[in-house]
Design a protein that fits this description.
heterodimer; A: alpha+beta; Cyclophilin; 2 domains; nine-stranded antiparallel β-sheet; seven-stranded mixed β-sheet; 5 helices; B: alpha+beta; Gyrase A, domain 2; seven-stranded mixed barrel; four-stranded antiparallel β-sheet; 14 strands
Chain lengths: 347, 243
C-alpha cells in the first residue's frame, strides 16, 4: 500500500469530505469541507467520487512524501506554489509523486484552503459515513484531530492514468449573497441597510467554527440574547459587540444570538476562501434567487467530469502556473488557537 | 373542542433550511409543539427534507432546495403543525445516577448559600424533579432539560468556565442539563454522572432523544466509580424505566 507521510503541515489542516449530516438533533455538527467545489474539483481530477475525503490545507505551507509506491494527487482551492521534487505542479491539475518524492506546498496566495486529493482516496474508518475531522467530538479518521508532522495517509498505489487538468469558470469577485433571516426582525431597517452598504473584513481570529467579521457595529432592537435555536452553515449571528460571526462547518448546532441573515449555499465556499483582511461586501437576495443559485451551483458540481482536459502541451502548464503565481493578497493568518476563548458555553 | 392551534412562524434560514418558530421564549407548550412536529415529520417524511433539529421553541428543518422549494415546504410544515398534539405518556423515562457535590459538583455549596439552604436540600429538590429533554445541542449529547423547580432558577455565572468535566450535571437559568463531553460552561455545577449521552462504538451512540423524560438519583463515590468503569465499557448505566 502506498502512503503519503506528512513531513510538515500548518494549523487548520485536517481530513475533510462532505461531512456527516443527520445527527444535528443530537448536537453533532456535520463538519466537512469549507469549500465543496474545490473538494469536488480535486477529487474529480484523480478519478475519486466528488466528495471523497481530501486533505484540507489551511493558509500555511505543507510537505508530503510518498512511501511504499507512487502516489497520484491533485490540488484545488486556494492557489499556492507547489512542486514535486522541483517539478512545478499547476493548480487544478493532477500529478504523480514517485516513491520517495516530496510534494512541497507554499503559503496560500489567494484563498485560505487548498484541497489535496489522493487517487484512491484516504484509507480510514468512517463514522456516520464520513472521515471528516471534528476534533471536539473525537471524530475523524485516520486521525480524529488536525493533521501533524509524522502523520501517515494510506492510499492505493498510483494507477498510472494520464494526468489531467480541469477548466473552471473564473472565480466571481461579486458580493457574497445572503438571504435575510431568521431573525432580521431583531434589527432596524437602518441597521439592515448598514449591513449591505458596508465593507467588511474577515478577522484573523477565525476558524472552522466561525468567521468573525470586522466592520460597523450592528445594533440590536431588543438586546443580543435570544432563546437558542438551530444554526446552519452561513448563519450570520450578531453578538453583543455588533460584529457578526458567520457560522462555518464546525459551528455549534444551536446558538443564542440573533441571526440577521444567512449566506446562500452557493456562495459559502467562495466566502470561506475570502482571505482575512480583504474587504468585501454582502448583497441581500430573494429566496427565489438563492434557490436558483443553488441549482446553478449543483449544475457546476455535476459538470466537473466534463471539464476534464488532457495535458497535451507544456504551454498549458506554464499558463496555469503563471496564473497561480500572480501576486495575490497577503497570506491570511487564520489561527486555529484563537477562537476558543470566545466560546462561553451552552446558552 | 380545543381552540385551534396558532400557526408557527416560518423563518428562512438560508436557501436550505426553514426555522419553524412556535415561540420566542422558553415555553413548555411551545416545546411540546416543536417535539410533536418533529415526530410528525419523522412519521410522514416530506420529500427533500434532510434532517430536523428540535430546540426549545423552534424546529429547524434542513432540506435540499433542488427537491423542494421554500413555499411548498413551508405549506406542508404548517399543515403538519396544525395537527392536535399527541399524548406524551409514551415518552421514554430514564433515571440518571448523579454524584452530587465535592469535587464532582464544585458549585453545590455556593448554590445552597445563595438560596439560603443546605446542599442536602438542593440535592433533594434536584432529584425530586421530573424533567424532559427539551433539546440536545451545542456539543454532542449536551441535553437541555425543562422542568427545573422555580426554587432552583439562578442566573448563569458571571464568568463562564472554559473547561467543565465530562458528565457534568448543572443548572442555569430555568434549565438543568446533562453534559456529555468536557467543555466550556457558564452554568452552576451540581454533580456528575457516569452516563455517556454520546459514546462512539456503542449502540446507540446517542442515548437520549428530545422528548425523553428524566429523573435523577443520588449515588455515592464508590457507586459512581463502578458506574464510570461500566459506562466506559459501553453500558448505559442510566436506567430505562419505561416503556
Amino acid at each position: 500500500m502506498s502512503k503519503l507521510v506528512i513531513a510538515s503541515i500548518g494549523p487548520a489542516s485536517s481530513v475533510q469530505d462532505a461531512g456527516r449530516p443527520g445527527a444535528q438533533r443530537y448536537g453533532l455538527v456535520p463538519s466537512g469541507a469549507m469549500d465543496r467545489l474545490a473538494l469536488a474539483t480535486a477529487n474529480t481530477l484523480v478519478g475519486n467520487e466528488p466528495f471523497a475525503a481530501c486533505v484540507e490545507i489551511g493558509p500555511f505551507g505543507a510537505t508530503f512524501t510518498a512511501r511504499g509506491g507512487a502516489v497520484r494527487i491533485a490540488l484545488a482551492g486556494a492557489s499556492r506554489n507547489a512542486d514535486i521534487a522541483g517539478r512545478p505542479v499547476a493548480p487544478d491539475t493532477s500529478a504523480t509523486l514517485a516513491d520517495g518524492e516530496t510534494l512541497t506546498l507554499g503559503f496560500a496566495r489567494s484563498g485560505s484552503f487548498s484541497y489535496l486529493a489522493i487517487e484512491g482516496s484516504i484509507a480510514g474508518e468512517p463514522m456516520f459515513g464520513s472521515l471528516a475531522v471534528n476534533a471536539r467530538a473525537g471524530l475523524g479518521s485516520p486521525y480524529p484531530r488536525p493533521l501533524q508532522a509524522g502523520d501517515e495517509l494510506e492510499t492505493k498505489a498510483a494507477s498510472g492514468a494520464p494526468e489531467r487538468r480541469i477548466e473552471l469558470p473564473a472565480t466571481s469577485e461579486a458580493p457574497i449573497r445572503a438571504v435575510w433571516g431568521p431573525q432580521d426582525d431583531e434589527f432596524s431597517d437602518d441597521t439592515k441597510k448598514l449591513f449591505v452598504d458596508s465593507e467588511w473584513k474577515i478577522s484573523a481570529t477565525s476558524d472552522r467554527m466561525g468567521y468573525r467579521l470586522e466592520g460597523p457595529a450592528l445594533t440590536h432592537l431588543h438586546g443580543h440574547n435570544i432563546v437558542s435555536d438551530g444554526t446552519v452553515n452561513g448563519s450570520l449571528q450578531v453578538p453583543g459587540n455588533g460584529q457578526p460571526i458567520v457560522l462555518m462547518p464546525d459551528r455549534g448546532t444551536s446558538g443564542g444570538y440573533p441571526k440577521i441573515a444567512t449566506v446562500i449555499s452557493a456562495d459559502l465556499g467562495r466566502f470561506a476562501q475570502t482571505p482575512a483582511g480583504r474587504p468585501f461586501r454582502f448583497q441581500a437576495v430573494s429566496m427565489a434567487e438563492a434557490q436558483a443559485a443553488a441549482r446553478k451551483f449543483a449544475e457546476l458540481l455535476h459538470s466537473l467530469p466534463d471539464r476534464l482536459r488532457s495535458i497535451e502541451s507544456v504551454d498549458l502548464n506554464l499558463d496555469a502556473l503563471h496564473d497561480a503565481n500572480v501576486a495575490g493578497y497577503a497570506v491570511s493568518a487564520i489561527d486555529a488557537g484563537t477562537w476558543q476563548a470566545e466560546i462561553t458555553g451552552p446558552d | 373542542m380545543a381552540a385551534p392551534l396558532s400557526p408557527p412562524r416560518l423563518l428562512p434560514s438560508g436557501d436550505s433550511a426553514i426555522t419553524v418558530e412556535f415561540s420566542r421564549n422558553i415555553d413548555d407548550a411551545a416545546n411540546r409543539r416543536v417535539l410533536a412536529l418533529d415526530r410528525a415529520l419523522a412519521a410522514q417524511p416530506i420529500t427533500g427534507v434532510t434532517e430536523a433539529v428540535p430546540t426549545y421553541r423552534s424546529l429547524l428543518v434542513h432540506y435540499d432546495p433542488l427537491q423542494i422549494g421554500f413555499d411548498d415546504l413551508g405549506e406542508k410544515l404548517l399543515a403538519l403543525a396544525q395537527r392536535p398534539l399527541p399524548e406524551t405518556t409514551a415518552a421514554r423515562r430514564w433515571r440518571i445516577p448523579v454524584i452530587y457535590g465535592g469535587e464532582h459538583g464544585i458549585d453545590l455549596e455556593d448554590v445552597a448559600k445563595t438560596l439560603n439552604t443546605t446542599p442536602d436540600d438542593i440535592v433533594a429538590r434536584h432529584t425530586a424533579g421530573h424533567y424532559r429533554v427539551a433539546m440536545i445541542g451545542f456539543t454532542p449529547g449536551w441535553s437541555y432539560l425543562s422542568g427545573l423547580a422555580d426554587f432552583l432558577h439562578l442566573p448563569r455565572r458571571q464568568n463562564p468556565r472554559l473547561l467543565t468535566p465530562a458528565g457534568t450535571i448543572s443548572i442555569g437559568g430555568v434549565q438543568t442539563g446533562v453534559q456529555c463531553l468536557a467543555g466550556p460552561s457558564g452554568w452552576h455545577l451540581l454533580g456528575r454522572t457516569a452516563v455517556r449521552t454520546y459514546q462512539l462504538h456503542r449502540d446507540p451512540i446517542f442515548l437520549l432523544e428530545p422528548g425523553d423524560q428524566i429523573t435523577f438519583a443520588a449515588v455515592d463515590a464508590e457507586t459512581f466509580a463502578d458506574q464510570d468503569r461500566a459506562a466506559e465499557a459501553g453500558e448505559f448505566v442510566a436506567e430505562l424505566l419505561t416503556p
